[in-house]
Amino acid sequence: MTATSSPATSPATQVEAPLATSTSATQQEVDAARGPLDALRAAVARVYLGPARTIDLLLLALLGRGHALLEGVPGVAKTTLVKAFATALGCSVRRVQFTPDLLPSDITGTYVLSPKDGTFNLRPGPIFANVVLADEINRAPAKTQAALLEAMQEKQVTIEGDRFELPPPFIVLATQNPIDLEGTYPLPEAQIDRFLLHVAMGYPSAREEVEMLKTHGSQAPHVAAQLDPARVAALQALTPRIHVEDDILDYIVAMCTFTRKHPRVVLGASPRASLALATSARGIALLKGRTFVTPDDVRDVAVPTLSHRLILVPELEGDAKARAGVVEEGIARVPYRRG
Description:
41% of the residues lie in helices and 14% in strands. The chain is α/β, with parallel strands linked by helices. The radius of gyration is 20 Å and the shape is globular.
């Protein structure tokens, strides 16, 4: 096969993320990061009338170079939120509407024969964007969902044996309906584990819903770009430099170990989950304006980071509240021991 695109390249313009150094972040650097993060939060909040915590979880996924899975019943503004967030980032955005007949090549792209010169040209799929909105991801079967595995973990895709790097920064924001609704497929465990955070979206408060009724039908607020790929990469490079003491790392491992030994859990939090919890704790410390992680940071992000990764006994599998309950039990029972 003759192709016009060569392996290990991307059809999108790339912005290289600066390498994180081994030095800890300074308070001046953290304070400087608060401005753009606050502006991003405020821009999204003008469109999304819901808990500020939900927006902060998307910020954590962004800072941790991770991906976020938003779950809720239809009509709670999942798609509205991720569209506003993606627009405010000022990065390239592509949306994929997952359906039962969606093919893996519809996501990654494929080679197409050019009749004029007899060569195969790469037609890139929507995966070649900084932000990919995977709408209703669990309405496609596992074979199609698997097209995202390599992209989410390795920031690359393989098409017809050729490897193509994805443009940094790269983040998948996926929405899904509860799996007990008609026409949904459960996400494979390997797919779920690729998401740094699971964001449970419930109904808005009475006050938020009244505000929504007041503004419905009027012109939607304009969401202006607050960042760009280079500034997103700089914020992501700062996050790993948030300091974590060894006793905090011990606490993270103890929290994950608790889930592995729980009688209601068949498969507990993996070592990848430990890494994810440390990353999320660094991100929340940065959002709070600190250069170091505290035990409260770990507790604050434990449920959205760990609960979706647990596989419970058959009678409880699929029960999101039961999974969250295991992690909450760990928060209450696992002691933090200062080194």
